[in-house]
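cron nightly-structures :: item 1 of 1
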Amino acid sequence: MAGLRKRMIGLSQRLGFLPLRVRNPRPKAGQQVVHFIHIGKNAGTQIKRVAEALGPSDPKLRIVAHGHDVQLRHLPQEAPYFFSIRNPVTRFTSGFYNRKAKGLPVRKVDWSADEARAFATFEHASDLAEALFADGTTGQSAWAAMASLRHAGQHQSDWFLQRGAFLEVRPPVHILRVEAFESDFKTLCGKIDLSQSALPKPDKAAARVTDYADIPALSDKAIANLEHWYARDVAFYQICAAWIDAQSS
């Protein structure tokens, strides 16, 4: 019963029926607290490893790495924060195979009934992407699958709902691009007084990196469909990338 109650509370918080509890630790004397907004499938596991390595007892800096449900609007007003972004097409592929593997080898999360139907219909990410916008039941099944897979169904811009002008009104400390992670992390380190050596060495298991050796590449049609499906995320990525470039100019 306790487990069911916890899941119901979590669902009610995500739907907005109950306020989301957000960790906001009080900094120690001379300590800076920086929040990390964790957008799924955007190298967040690496950032969490950095936060864990620092620990809450670090005298100079504490990174609070939140779960996937925490959006910018949930953070305390004026709390410094950062986040990471990713090309929507590669993020979709990563999310598809992460759920197809049920989160393994890191943590097993069984499929929902909707996910089971999605993977029974579409073996590969390319199959699902090519079926988007198709006529009849094929397109309907593709829509249902996209809505059933969490990281595929959520847009990166969803984490900034009701905060459309955040880059001007409440800018982040920095933004990390998965495609330029090391250089962007270096810039972040300079802004929050963190040693670049804090970046952990790559760990495929810990970072949930998918081996794409035996996975069909996305066709031109699949890529075009995904860029259409994620049009607002394509724009969001470009806006964030332009902001990053402006910081270094």
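cron nightly-structures :: done
The beta strands are 32-37, 61-65, 81-85, 174-177.
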